[in-house]
User: Fold these one by one.
Assistant:
Number 1:
Amino acid sequence: MSAPTFLSVRGIRKSFGSVKVLHGVDLDLPAGSVTALLGENGAGKSTFVRILAGDHHADEGNIEIDGAPISFRSVAQSREAGIRLIAQEIADAPTLSVAENITLGAVPNRLGFVDYGAMRSIAQRALDSLGADLQLDAPVSSLRLGERQIVEIARATAGASRCLIFDEPTAALSDAETKRLFALIERMRSRGVAILYITHRLDEVFAIADRVCVLRDGRVSLDAKVAEVDQTAVVTAMVGRAVASHQDHHVYAETGAARLVEVRGLTSDSFFNIDVDVAPGEIVGIYGKVGSGVPELAGAIFGAVPHASGDILVDGKPVIFRHPSEAIAQGFGFLPADRASEGLLRPRSVAENLAAPSWRRLARGAFVSRRIETSAFGRWHKTLKVRSRPDGAERIATLSGGNQQKVLLGRWLEAGSKLLLLVEPTRGVDVGARQEIYQVLRDLARQGHGILIASSDYEDITEAATRAIVMVRGQMVAHLPQNEISTARLTEAAGGGAHA
Amino acid sequence: MPENVQATSAVPATTIRARMKAPEWGALLIFLLAEIVFFTINSPYFLSWPNIVNIITALSITGILAAGGTILLIAGQFDLSVGSGTAFVALMFAIAAQSLGIMPAVGVAVLVGVGIGMLNGFLVTVVGVNALITTLGTLAIFRGLTLSIGGASSVRITGFDWAIARPFLDIPLSAVLFLVIAVGIAVLLSRTVFGRTIYAIGANENAARLVGIRTKKTLFLGFVISGVCMAITGLVSASQLGSTSGTTGTGLELAVVTAIILGGTSLKGGTGSMFGTVLGLLIVGVLNNGMTLMNINSTWQQVAAGTLLILAVSFDQIRQRFIRA
């Protein structure tokens, strides 16, 4: 590689208390090159990039920029060196305008007075380079998640940065937005910017990266040119063993059993006239990108968000859920899209999180003991392969994303739900745990559960679903039987409608 | 009796979560013991049974209100109206007692307390006003009502001195009542479905709703329990003083919140315990009592309690920074 190295990292170590997160990380970021950084949750990716961004301080190790040693003691120092981090969690100022957010931290001013003209032109230029059409004066709280992510990216790219670090930027973006982001990354690369791109998605690595670097257990387990590796090598480096690929497809055979739910003409602000059934043993995958109304549909079936018209039928009779507890009583279980804000009881124990919907049933009179919760957790701990203490006594916040997700799934198994409504079941879940979740879902379907997966990740559909529905802008645009489900068919159906 | 509360809360001591928490309680316990040792050395009277009873008796009103307050703060809510609520209940009781007699007046007091709790609960859960603002408003309203209806002078209450009776071990009934309520709330929080739902709502109200918890109903009930506590403290205060006035219960809301936070309940909700609150109450109570015995002016006790609160919370912040991975 002839490009000069912008940033060079040697022997970075970092511990939090007694927990060692990084055990000596070496990495070079060449100018004008995209390096993809992968690793399972807990591998130390976020800690590593926060050290580069000056947010954390390494316990040991050296950082060199342009060959000169440097030590970041603050975020400001890292920014001064030209490094910008686009973090995974959106950290904007919701009440401020788009223009103010883009120039946050570098407000153009004359003698300390804000230069609003310059602010608007800087913001407009940054948005133009992303091909984004947003109102400069709109408060960012009025934007949807993907648009807020665009504002964050615009802020990072507005200044003269020399190194951009993206931490899973596409999770909230639509297909079109992702394409424009990739085009921007291409332009930045040709301008000589060093780019570090963190992702869970292997297809993105092969689409935009020049080099791929994998972190496992706080060490670099793979550092190679993308052209020289294949998917299997990357996955093996991530999980430390070969991952069994999905040979075990569950095939749904019509049993004639009564449908667990029939949805007829369901309509709201986000989706129109939806018909969908789920029978025992079936895994119905509903695929749609951001803005398709797919997560809202799943929420409406559960009674978590209201719908305007249409019917939900259980045992052939229409039911109206005014509160999730009424859906739960009908045997429905719901895995929300956003684990942190809608799923987890973070300060509480793993066992308590699992038992939550079942407290009333498990109680002796009005009393629930920790012992009852522990035995409830014990019933599912092995089935779900949750990596935690066998009694589930630790706080759920200490588990990795995949294990948290398994516990949230276990909630509904303990509650005896027959119909599982799962929204983005593998979002923020690493490769190994992802396969385990798919396996659990197939097993559950075989045991007679009906499952509805609402997802913007086609892998969820291709791996688990026994039939698929594609939605675009709130409308169903395609029905695919199992033998026709493929990445190509899904993206084609989802993309075709959007540009129609 | 603290032993009793400890027994109900000692169950999780076998868990990692509790082991991570142990230093927090441990630090509070060590601080309490240090206070006790210090005051024992400085005052021979300090560790006598009558003084121990004094300490607990002085805590009883704050403690009963803190029991209801602990439920609310764990659920991520606040009740700042407890002090003026206590005064309003006591005044309504005194007025009703003059015309209706003692027993019907007790009924009136309970209704008034429950009514204040329902008003707070309605505003927070149905109308959707933030709890801090709601109860700041009702704090002002009921203090103002107490002053307007009761006037400047105090209202005398006769034939209602049960709270100062000492039927056994020389402990006044007000202190006994506090201990019973503390144990009751400790069990409610740590052992019942209602307690679990309170923690769940405080941890994540959204998630709690999606696992089928009737979050609004539960929070409403939490405010009503706080109202019942006001009814009880209004009656205890009326009985202890034999009168009530416009300044009864002034500043109680701060003493209550101080004790709960000192006891380790997070402002963010989802964590904390009644045992912690009792420790917080004792730390402030012992400090005030000891300083009085050492003839330190009571104005300095406020300075000490405020400093203690900030130190305790700072210590906890620093500790969490070390634990967090």
Number 2:
Amino acid sequence: MKRLYTYIVLLAAAAMGLSSCEYEFDNGSLTKETSIYVEGRLSNSDTNVIRIVKTLPYNMKVAAKDSAALNVTAVSSLELLRDGSGQQVFYADEAVGSVPKGSYYTVGAFHPGEKVTLKAGMEGVKKVSAETVIPQDVNWEYEVAEAISEADAHNVFHITISFDNAPDTDEFYGIQVEVRSNVTFYNEDGTVNPYYGQDYIYALNPPVDDSDDDIESIMAGEGDSHVFEYENIYLCDDSSLRTGRNTIAYDAKLWGPYYYFGMARTKGGDDRDSGKPVKVRTLQEYRVTLYSLSRELYRWYASQYNARYNPLAELGLCPPSFAYGNIKNGIGCFAGVCGTSSGWIVINDNWVDIDKALYY
Amino acid sequence: MLVLAMMLVAYAPIAAQNTDDIDQLVDTLDASTITSTKDHFENTTQTGLTKLDGSKFQKGFALFNSPDVIKTLQMLPGVAFGTELLSGFYVRGGTGYDNLFLLDGVPMYQVSHLGGLFSSFNADIVENTDFYKSGFPARYGGRLSSVVDVSTKAGDFYKYHGSFSIGLMDGRLQFEGPIIPGSTSFNVSLRRSWIDIPATPVLMYVNRWMAKEGDNQKISAGYNFGDFNAGITHKFSDYNTLSLNFYTGQDLFRIGVEDWEYDWPQNPDYDPTYKNTMTTGGTIRWGNLLASLVWKNSFSRRLYGRNMIYFTRYNSSIGIGYSDEYMRQNEVVEYEGTDATNAVHIGDLAAQSDWSFIVSDTHHLRFGANVKAKQYHHLNEIHTEMKDFIDTTITAKNHYDAGEMSLYAEDEMSIGQRTRVNMGLRYMGFLSKGKLWNMLDPRVSVKYQLGDNTSLRASYSVMNQYDHQVATTYIDLPTNLWMPSTDLIGPMKSRQAALGVYSSAVGGRLKWSIEGYYKSMHNLREYNGTANIFPPINKWESDFIDGKGIAYGSEFSVEYDPNPNTNLTAYYTLAWSRRYFEEFYYDWYPDRCDNRHKITLMANHKFNDHIDGYIGWNYNNGNWFTLANQKVFDKIEHYGVGTEWQSDYVYVDEVYARPNNIRMPAYHRMDLGVNFRKVKKNGHERIWNFSVYNVYCRMNAIMATIEQEWDNYVDEDGVWHNDISGYYTQALGVIPIIPTFSYGIKF
């Protein structure tokens, strides 16, 4: 019988070994394609950046020394229309404030309800076009219900955001809660240690709406949750929201100051001989921003998110994701958003001995 | 009332007929000439109809000893199979869950075992199969793309006989005979896989080996499926029968893993009674249950009726559990356990009445009604236990009670000597969640006789489907849900027009046809969520997005019997299938199964009374797949500037222009099969079957990737570079050559 088992195992192993193989195949001209990639998030802020770049064919060799050939941003034609009227677009030869080098940007806020159209051309590729409507702002308010400082665990606080969901139209919301910890390291003489000390922004746990948490989100993880997170923004459509006033509640946890100590040490400067700090101060602040997203932007985020968490699609076992884009003849997303922010608000001010910070 | 009225009008003395005549009345009535031929190729008015008798399945290739209805149909033109070996069934650009499968007239919701490796139809008792791709008669409805109407054999009324066979994966037993000779018969068949039997010693060996290696782990697993068909038929007369049919099919998969660990002797607080045990396991069951009572009667030479009540249901249940237990001094000091349950149920209880009435030499009416009570039930539950804490149970469920009423009427008319028209209308009313959907499906098929053996046919069909399969993958998994149309989700709809020429020659031994079609589909639904094999229960309406599709193409088939022992078949399909889901992409893009060319070549030959063989070759363009095929420059990072480790990295983001942008390598394979038969002295026939799937071991791709090649080097300035120097496209194939054999006896 033992011999039989051995044969069976060997047979199964041989079958497995024979039963898969990888091989190369020619995919024709597919990887030689190139087109225009656009990424533009037009908002009610004063400066809006539009990135327009020629994509690289997949078969192209990419070397850092060829940076000029890699980052082709020169357009042969560019037109931006606001409700049919021309809008001046600038090009950033160098990085200016929040505008990265090589980007296009506009000055002046876009207003809710405006229809914005982009047309752009580049040498050797098809012209592209896209349009979006700047969504309406949201009538909202927020409230911090509780803030508890637990020195040896997490800081927990609750925040509720109330806003009006308009009837008969599809709305898309994004909520961002940022936490900024201003970490400062002090030497024994009370001076700031120059080697440590950085500001960090760290987003919180996802919000839950005021209905009961559902089972799919637990079984499937956040992937199936109605609220999903992308780039630290929690997004949802209004399919589960009621018309009129809605409340979204956070039950958020903040990692203690020790966390930031680790981060600060990693990101510190090069002045290693500046002495050992004895105290660390963590000034924690938060900022809440509520976005009203255009349908295009919401879809873009959703598809980016789906792509990131969709290994089944990569295996070809389910419908493709990360395909959405509203750039005709091109790739990318050109979409409107309207955001309102609370500004930075202090949560707590922690002073911890450095040894204790290290301990945690 | 309508039915009763027609009965009264049509009632007339009946003459003796045999059941073949009755079948002929029902199926192919040419009112002026009721032919006795069973060859529907020329007689039928419908386009896109293929009729297969049961012997066809037995002659073809039998993977793992199981002749398979679905895999035989997959060979036909216009049918794409999706992923190799699975029972994907994409008819003329269809979605795969838009096919109406009927077993003796009863709908079957899930038609596969083992993720699609086997179908639920046991070929041993299949008498014939009607497969419609277009020109759907009005008596069929509720699905967009095809109808697969499988009829099983009634048992022999005079003698007992049966068959038995066993192969590498399953064993089959079929037995039939009289209960009351001449008037009542039975036919039963049983099929069960036995792969769980060799799996047991394999796992025992693995567990022993792991124990020997010092691993504190034990694994148990098993899978089996089974089918049971049973039918009892009673003949009141040759034209009046009552039959009771039953089918149940079940898949069962279970797995369990147990890990444990003891305290470390090196631990200062070493406790020899300490044991931590973690168990993970699950059981998945899924299957169908069908039962029907059918009364068929010819009330006269002109009126035939079939009345039936039936029940059909599909159930699946998934139970997954996890526990973590800490013991000291034989007492549980800490415990945490979670059990998750997922259950799916769809069931119909229905009454159906179908009538066939010859009004005159030029009109043959069919009409009928169907009333259904439907239930859709889905449950998802998680139960968590922790020592010293209160147990928690989180439940998500939905339940829909729905009702459907269908009425149809069709008239097969002869207009002159050359033209025949089948015109019909089907009404479906579907009530769910307080919303009544009214659907009207017009159908028309026209046949024009070009010559004695050649006809031109055209058809137009509208089909509506109110059952939606909610699946997050292309695989036929037990996690897939069936949901009804609701107040938010409307029925899917298709419109199809087809035109073809059908001809025979050489005394009917050569048959060929060419048929073109154009089909549009609306309200198709695709999952727009993330990696999760459990489709959302409560939010399915919003997580599945709305789109449409078009499919068009032409199909060519030729069959030739050069002699009674040889059959040669060739099919060719030229097809396009496209999708438009705005949430995915702003324009039309290829459907995954947009296989432009499909070729099937088959030959059967009976060498003598003892040996017959089969050879088949299939080719189609590869499925479409989505891959990044362009790059967007992101940034260049210079690390360690001024040091000996200085290095430059360039970062790019990968993007693609549209979904399904890459076609995988062409699919092709050859299959061989040979039967060695011998009739023994006792009259029993012994059959050895040897089959080879994928003879030349073509590793057909199931997925593809694009890989980048990197070039790492140090330049003359001592700077490290990490450049992308090239790429290659790679396919993964997993199905090699599969030789199988089986042994069977017919008695």
Number 3:
Amino acid sequence: MSDENEMITGIEVPIYLKYNFTAGAAPARFLSQLKEGKLTGQSRSDPGAPVYVPPRGSCPATGQPTDTEVEVADKATVQSFTIVHIPIPGNPIEPPFVVANLVADGANISFIHLMSECDNEQVHIGQRVQAVWRPEEEWDYSMDNIKYFKPIDEPDVPVEHIGKLPVTGLEA
Amino acid sequence: MKEIAIVGYQQSDAVSDAGAQNEVELIIPVLSRIFEQVGITNAQDVDFVCSGSCDYLQGAAFAFVLGVDALGAVPPIKESHVEMDAAWALYESVLKIRMGHADSALVYGFGKSSPGELPIVLSQQLDPYYLAPQWVDTISLAAMQARMMLDRGLITERDMAEVVARSRRNALDNPHAQLKGDVTADDILAEETYLSPLRRSDCCPISDGASAMVICTVEKAKAWGKPYAVISGIDHIIESHNPGMRDLTDSVSTRKAAENAGMGKGKVDVAELYAPFSHQELILSRALGLGDDTNINPSGGVLAGNLMMASGLSRIGEVFNRIVAGDAERGVAHTTSGPCLQHNLVAVLDKGEVA
Amino acid sequence: MSQPEILNQAFELGFTYTRSTGPVVGRFLTELKKRNIVGIKASDGRVIVPPMEYDPDTAEELSEFVEVGQEGEIISFAWVKHPREAHPSERPFAWAMIKLDGADVPMVHWVASDSEELVSTGARVKATWSDDTKGYITDIACFELV
């Protein structure tokens, strides 16, 4: 590229745009409760309607608003997971680490979070986990208030029951 | 070819900042009103759904996917999306019905432009080698177009101010309008220039909101027993991306699209034109050959509220509203996209038979 | 139902894209690096600056480059009283469509001027080069009134 007569074949085009994001009403309610250390799902108002964590404002199955709030447990079940071995640009966590789809007790849809204090090779679907919270003074409007989920000594949940547990967890 | 009818249209208010409303929360109230208008439960009751939006507006990748959460998409539905104004989602839906793949369709558009710096965001739709890297904003391009019109004596600043004043007055009757008032051209001319030769009032506001429409075959409209208007013609044409290669003082593509849509086959009682800048309404009404017997932008047009990705569909919806209300028998709706009226869609609407 | 607070978060969304230039844009940018401006001949003989790869009217592939002048005439302009952060100038300036000598089609660039009154349609301008040309449209730092 030092030859000034050399033909240019490619250019770098930086496109950087600034935004001010405003959370929707449903996510804002969820995040406000999270700041108080509570995981709050939302559902349609009809009885037995599915509970979403995190909520986005509608029940995708019917298109109706999720205006009913339900506190869910910070215990959850592994619905799926992956072990990340590649460093991800901008991510401070050092691989290998476990990213899992977790369903909180009392909720019917999974969210994504980290798992730690575990043997990565022993992580499995149906495994029971619980949130490890940051110190209360660090809580913000963020799922990051939970550092990660760690395995707990409870029996595995059969696959057909994952996503269907009551807020009290698996019945003995 | 199957005749296609519009049976429902709804839009949200155009607001400068929708605040704590995400995409799905903007759409749900509009959809629930249109489902009620047409007498259906949700998107399960139509054969096809198509939406228009642009993730760049709010800077959230795949934000349009969240829109699907407002539809009731369980069991799965036939759904599509255009990264354009929903008027083009309507176009896709019209083709779908004409080809016999659907008898009815829900079309919706939504946009939250307030989170970003819209004129700068839109600069990135320009040529990526010569224009986008200079960050030429869309208002500046429109200002150069306006000056060409002024320099060549095609319009005066008073003509532009008259367009704004009429928009503000017409918008007094539009409950969804963001800017309205009993304003005169002299009031507008008294304003200082903003991006010379444009004054702030010559430019559409930045708005958040959504709109939705249901279309179907005329047979289905009759079966539903709803008042309807017929889409008797629709076409869209795009011009060169190089503004230097275009005659910016005319809109050749609008004129051609209107010819192809059959606009000239009858009288035009009402026209809703997507003119984000006052001088562009004059370019468009001349390109379409509209005279004093046509009521232009009775809603106030987009100078009264510009829902990016939804206001094009709204132009068609406003003409539909006037036809079913009996205020007009035939109307034309125009939608634009790109800088300086680069890409234009024209739809011709006629009164349907009395149900 | 709890009452939500309004939660805002400023953020920047950005990527540095790598774009292939192809032989036509690449040639134009290569010439800019050498402080030359070239256009291309359209099917009807008009000279287009910056060059386009295909004729917008006939779709014919274009390849006949022509060097054009570094001075030209303002065809139209917009006076930016309040420059935006992304704009190339912090001081008020004009975006302009400039027809360079030897070109038939105006190009969009910006004109530095101390005041709006000094800029007019038909005014002559001259390209000013950036100190370090690298093969980018902003190698032309701006145009100045002659």
